[in-house]
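Ticket closed. Logging final result for Lipoprotein signal peptidase.
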Amino acid sequence: MRKKQRIFSFIQLFVAVALLTGFDQLTKLLAVKNLKGKADIPLIPDVLYFQYLENRGAAFGIFQDRKIFLVLLTSLILVGVCYVLWKIPADKKYIYLKLLCFLITAGGIGNLIDRVRLDYVIDFIYFAPIDFPVFNVADIYVSVGMVFLFIVVLFYYKDEDFEFLKWKNKGV
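Final structure:
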């Protein structure tokens, strides 16, 4: 029965991540078509803009022109998230953990696609009041996923809820 639950979790992961990643890629396609080489578009003047940017680094512009490192790092993180998803028990109490893993995975894959295909990530959302770096939908997935993951790990789940992640030595 446990194997069927794991397979079902991965089917859920595949469908959710495909939909979320598809939406991210669609928004980036629209950004290229409607923003590249054009003036910024104010959505809320002095607050929120659409602004095209080709980001050759990671968050906040770090690791500029380090494509191989970023591809490897993202791939390693995605493997870790898939491992967690594989091990998560089927209990309803883990639904938040699953959903957050889906968000983080979709964001990672969305930016990984850009990085592999284009050598840069397409960013196009600019929040002016705090001069926040230009970002995209995949960045939102990862940021929101990580913030809520931090919150649920600290305030919702207990240490014993993560026993499923411990390595078990069989016969040693």
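The chain has a mean pLDDT of 90. No further action required.
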